[in-house]
Amino acid sequence: MKNTALTFRQAKEKGEKLTMLTCYDYSTAKLMDESGVNSLLVGDSLGMVMMGYENTLAVTMEDMIHHTKCVSRGAKNALVIGDMPFLSYHTSVYDAVVNAGRLIKEGGAQAVKLEGGADMAETVAAIVRAQIPVCGHIGLTPQSINAFGGFKVQGKTVEAAQKLLDDAKRLEDAGCFAVVLECIPELPARQITESLSIPTVGIGAGKYCDGQVLVYQDMLGLYSDVTPKFVRKFADCGTVMREAFRRYIEAVNEGSFPSAEHTFRFEGTVSARVS
Ligand code: KIV
Ligand code: NA
């Protein structure tokens, strides 16, 4: 069954958990879609895990559209959410609607995500008016790294937690169908989740969120530049891949690959020569 912004809201009403994984390419999208994950987020985290940047700020609309296209072609049932990159929605509400529209029209996503709380409410409402479902994102919003002075857990004081709750409510009122809570202590994440009628999707926000999201390279052990506290390695694919690459190199060097089964037979006579 196709997951949509509507089924996301319904899942919360039914008390069902939601799963989301980041995804950036076709082959992985197919694997994830077959596994039954509810949503594939083409995150601007691709700047770090796919492109090797130190943070997400350099990611462009062209980068996002390119990867969103790849993921959309591989996702049958999962809801594809395209992340709006830094500065694609801050310059004006007009720019935000145009760029959100590009992720849908060109990228093939069914929804977009953008970072920010009350400050973004007007922008969210305008995108929603264009019939584009919007997922909010509050807490540690990586595009604010320079404003925050680094990647830090948010909402650790009563005042900060109250601000996050207010932000979440403003996003719900503006029309968001879901909101990502990133790096927030369990208690405020729980309070936000219980205060909203739209689902919360947590990453480093504890078990009371309505859903969870992880960067797939993190959960597969494929990215070791940074390993946040909230990551569980569900498989050590890094070791599996390194080992496979090593065995390939060894097999080529010792001449055991390619063997006869991997080699095409020449149909001519033995004396025939290819010049
Ligand atoms: O870009 C991303 O991967 C994200 C998730 C971590 C929520 O925004
Ligand atoms: Na992101």
UniProtKB/TrEMBL annotation:
Task: List the Pfam families hit by this protein, alphabetically.
Answer: Pantoate_transf (PF02548)
Does the keyword field hold Transferase? yes
Q: Where is the active site?
A: E182 (proton acceptor)
Enzyme Commission number(s) of this protein: 2.1.2.11
Q: Which GO terms describe its cellular component?
A: cytoplasm
Check the record and name the SUPFAM superfamilies matching this protein. Answer: Phosphoenolpyruvate/pyruvate domain
The primary location reported for this protein is: cytoplasm
Q: Where is the protein situated, by its record's location annotation?
A: Cytoplasm
Against CDD domains, the record matches this protein to: KPHMT-like
Q: Tell me which residues bind 3-methyl-2-oxobutanoate.
A: D44, S45, D83, K113
Q: Which domain of life is it from?
A: Bacteria
Q: Please list the reactions this protein catalyses.
A: (6R)-5,10-methylene-5,6,7,8-tetrahydrofolate + 3-methyl-2-oxobutanoate + H2O = 2-dehydropantoate + (6S)-5,6,7,8-tetrahydrofolate
Q: Does the keyword Methyltransferase apply?
A: yes
User: Which GO molecular function, any one, fits this protein according to its record?
Assistant: methyltransferase activity
Question: Entry's PANTHER family?
Answer: 3-METHYL-2-OXOBUTANOATE HYDROXYMETHYLTRANSFERASE (PTHR20881:SF0)
To which protein family does this belong?
Answer: Belongs to the PanB family.
**Assembly notes:** Homodecamer; pentamer of dimers.
* Protein's job: Catalyzes the reversible reaction in which hydroxymethyl group from 5,10-methylenetetrahydrofolate is transferred onto alpha-ketoisovalerate to form ketopantoate.
Give the protein name, as stated in the record.
3-methyl-2-oxobutanoate hydroxymethyltransferase
Write the gene name: panB
